[in-house]
Amino acid sequence: MYKKVLLAYDGSIEGRRALREGAKLAQLCCAEVFLLAVVELPSIMTPEAGLAIPIDEQTATYKAILAEGVERLKSLGFSPTSRLETGDAGQKIAEVAEEIEAHLVVVGHRPQGPLARWWFGSVGSYLVKRLCCSVLVAQTEISDDEFEQLKPPSEKPVSGQADTASVS
After folding, report:
1. Which CATH code is given to the segment(s) 4-151?
2. Of 1-5, 57-61, 142-146, which one has max mean pLDDT?
3. What count of Cα atoms within 13 Å lies in the side-chain half-sphere of residue 63?
4. Rounded CA gap, 19 and 86, in Å?
5. pTM for this model (two decimals)
């Protein structure tokens, strides 16, 4: 069904939800996983907004977020391809999805008020209109226990066995 899954990841609660839900689907479909983080320029480049974060600092933060996402996926047995882009999140996600010929794009959902949604728009809505592949706006809570169940059997702790390293 889905052979290439693109996960948009920003390290937020919503992004982690998308990572978990996307990883679960990718595992069920035996799909190749791509992890994308986007450093958005508008929030960085407009001092009038009251908070201007230098691009180098923002990029370093997103590199760390991307590395953390890659490690989470590797712990589940994936060999993800990761990428960091700079620009408008919706446009960059769409460009990468088209470039890799993704079958599914998974993004998180960040609740916004009606005015904010009208003014800034929704990345999910933008992607649904622009892309030819499926788009999942992840909202499902996946518990830590359920997420642990995604790990390959060789990495799951075996219940009832003592940790021999701690027994003297």
Report:
1. 3.40.50.620
2. 1-5
3. 6
4. 20
5. 0.76
